[in-house]
From TrEMBL, chain A:
Stated name of the protein: Uncharacterized protein
Automatic annotation (TrEMBL), chain B:
UniProt xrefs under NCBIfam families: sigma70-ECF (TIGR02937)
UniProt similarity note: Belongs to the sigma-70 factor family. ECF subfamily.
Xref: Pfam families: Sigma70_r2
GO molecular function: DNA binding; sigma factor activity
Domain RNA polymerase sigma-70 region: from-to ranges: 24-87
Organism lineage: Bacteria, Bacillati, Actinomycetota, Actinomycetes, Kitasatosporales
GO biological process per UniProt: DNA-templated transcription initiation
Protein name in the entry: RNA polymerase subunit sigma-24
Length: 161, 191
């Protein structure tokens, strides 16, 4: 990064050039801080996100995302987003549509499920005894599902739709 | 941020120290934001990606394998989410023009007003022109410099994670881009 040669001796003129580079880089850094700072509201949300830190919950990792893993179907522009999360033996399939979420816990089992919409937003959803659930509210922004089943708490990886 | 410091802050945050979390947010928000901006997302998408990254970081906090590389973790998570947005957009029609968002807005931010005193006006004008010229540098340079100039300066490992480019290519590319930018500023000054 210094522009110096292996012998530690700068080539002729390189010092000035590198110094000028560094100067303009620092000016750009100031420009970024002044003209394109992190919006305050966002920084505040990141601060509040500390509440989402939960060592007792297991994380269900995203193992399938139709956006990334499925081939696009020609002519089908608004295919629902299909997601699969897995935490060891428990799998959660979720379909995100304009109308909300439809999902299934596998193996089929009853569970209590909530949709998290941020550090402050929690909305319970109805689950039948076979682990099928529906939420009539489409996620507005990032979301995660929190499942309580057989004494375990599982939270799906945060995702935006 | 210094990697050892980041690792220690992550550990403290895992142990329940809210001040450590705050320090992580303050220290690394600009890096995450720069990745979002480098990918030219729309305002709404950019905000959601930023949130997703921090929510996921909080969620994974105690499970991050190399806490001292948390900056690279954040940067690569941000990059992946940005790429997903772009992929989803490519499948739909492009409606809004994300470029608009990269322009310096006409309204002054509070930070700007602070330096808007008369003697600082020239200085502010130069920064504004530099920022505009950044847009004309070509996509690779614009992306690299946008991430490179976040505060505090990111490590090359973080830049690599943010943009998916090899660490070894960052130095030479940085030099080429900065010189191109300087040349554009010189040309502008001469005009």
């Amino acid at each position: 990064m210094s522009g110096y040669g292996d012998d530690g001796m700068p080539p002729e003129g390189a010092v000035d050039e590198e110094a000028a580079d560094r100067l303009v880089e620092e000016e750009l850094r100031q420009a970024a801080a002044v003209l394109d700072p992190v919006p305050d509201a966002l920084r505040q949300l990141a601060l509040e996100a500390y509440a989402l830190h939960d060592l007792d919950a297991r994380i269900a990792e995203l193992t399938f995302d139709s956006l990334v893993d499925a081939l696009p179907v020609r002519g089908v522009m608004d295919a629902p987003r299909m997601l699969t999360f897995r935490a060891e033996e428990v799998t959660v399939d979720v379909e995100v549509t304009e109308d909300g979420l439809i999902g299934q816990v596998l193996p089929p089992q009853s569970a209590r499920i909530e949709v998290l919409g941020g550090p402050q937003t929690v909305r319970p959803v109805t689950v039948d005894t076979l682990g099928r659930f529906t939420s009539r509210t489409p996620p507005a922004g990032p979301f995660a599902l929190r499942l309580r089943t057989g004494g375990a708490v599982i939270v799906t990886e945060w995702l935006r739709t | 941020m210094d990697r050892t410091e980041v690792g220690a802050l992550v550990q403290s945050a895992v142990d329940g120290d809210a001040a450590a979390w705050k320090a992580l947010v303050e220290g690394m928000s600009p890096l995450v934001w720069s990745v979002v901006r480098a990918h030219r997302l729309s305002e709404a998408d950019g905000h959601e990606v930023y949130q997703t990254v921090w929510f996921r970081f909080a969620q994974h906090l105690g499970r991050i394998r190399e806490p001292d590389k948390a900056g690279a973790w954040l940067a690569s998570t941000a990059r992946n989410e940005c790429l997903k947005v772009l992929k989803a957009m490519a499948r739909l029609t492009l409606t809004d023009d994300p470029r608009v968002l990269d322009r310096a807005s006409d309204e002054r931010t509070p930070e700007e007003s602070l330096i808007a005193s008369e003697e600082a006006a020239d200085r502010a004008e130069r920064l504004r022109r530099l920022w505009q010229e950044l847009d004309g540098l070509g996509e690779r340079c614009r992306q690299l410099l946008r991430v490179l100039v976040s505060s505090p300066p990111p490590s090359y490992v973080e830049v690599s994670a943010a943009l998916g480019i090899a660490v070894g290519s960052i130095g030479p590319l940085r030099q080429r881009c900065l010189r191109r930018l300087r040349a554009r500023m010189d040309a502008r000054g001469a005009a």
